[in-house]
Design a protein that fits this description.
Length: 296
């Protein structure tokens, strides 16, 4: 096999290569003054199983540059007769764009998948993808891995689990069962892109060390509002797969008075500011991804 990585996922790809005891392969990038770039690869790919790492960086300009880099990587592997081309994309921001919210809005998750497949994709590996619909857009092989076991290993002395909303309820109950602790229920109403209203919180969390589970942290605004409803908890730990920490996220978490820890994976590179400012514990997906690659 050969493993390549785009610029968004180099550190994680290197860790996976160490687990697999294979070298990370490299390509050169030629930048042109007219704004385009091209990738230059080792052309000896015939018959090889190729794994291409890239993830979604929460920066619009960088994200779309990385997507174009990924499409070139896939297409080059196809043109040079690789036997299998697997994209490993731990976090996929476009997975959320799985439906039309109003007339005239394109389903960009579907478009994204079709671009990958047209370029030459044969397999896709993601981790805790937000949308159940996303996988239905694939005609090629699709694998959605779970980081729940990794999160469970880091959750010690937790007495109660609360899924952040109904979208996180199913996986949250699975995590609670792994930890053998009771769990509650949260119902919220989204007022706008930045405002939510919590209508009901069920469960006995007073004076307990609790974990709030969700699939991702973006601005932290919703979790901050939720934490205000959980002031009677002894401590709060947030456990999520994808930690974006965008916008005012760092300040939002600093204002949570009973915050104990934030546990995230390395599906998205974490900023140095977030590492220094918050009680963040980063767990790596390297073994999970390496096991899946070995099993294919």
């Amino acid at each position: 096999m050969k493993i390549y990585s785009g610029q968004s996922c180099l550190l994680l790809a290197e860790k996976v290569c160490q687990e697999l005891n294979v070298p990370l392969s490299y390509f050169k990038k030629e930048e042109y003054k007219n704004g385009c770039f091209e990738l230059i690869f080792d052309r000896n790919l015939k018959g090889e199983d190729i794994y291409l790492f890239q993830t979604s960086i929460p920066d619009s300009w960088q994200l779309h540059r990385d997507i174009w880099e990924l499409l070139q990587m896939i297409n080059f592997a196809q043109k040079n007769q690789a036997s299998k081309i697997t994209v490993v994309m731990p976090y996929v921001s476009y997975a959320r764009s799985d439906k039309s919210y109003e007339k005239g809005v394109a389903i960009t998750a579907k478009l994204f998948v079709k671009l990958l497949e047209k370029a030459g994709l044969t397999d896709f590996i993601g981790v805790d993808l937000h949308s159940e619909k996303f996988k239905k857009f694939f005609s090629t092989r699709f694998y959605d891995l779970s980081a729940l076991n990794l999160l469970a290993e880091e959750l010690k002395d937790i007495e109660f689990l609360l899924p952040a909303d109904m979208g996180a309820f199913k996986k949250g109950t699975i995590l609670a069962e792994k930890l053998k602790i009771p769990f509650g229920r949260v119902e919220k109403k989204r007022i706008s892109d930045t405002k939510v209203q919590f209508e009901k919180i069920e469960g006995d969390f007073e004076n307990k060390d609790i974990v709030v589970f969700d699939d991702e942290i973006s601005t932290g605004g919703t979790l901050k509002i939720l934490s205000e409803k959980l002031k009677k908890a002894k401590s709060l730990t947030f456990a999520v797969t994808h930690g974006l920490f965008i916008g005012n996220a760092i300040n939002n978490f600093k204002e949570i008075i009973n915050l104990k820890k934030i546990i995230v994976t390395d599906s998205v590179p974490l900023s140095e500011e977030a590492k220094k400012s918050l009680p963040v514990k980063i767990i790596s997906l390297n073994k999970l991804l390496a096991q899946k690659i070995n099993a294919q």
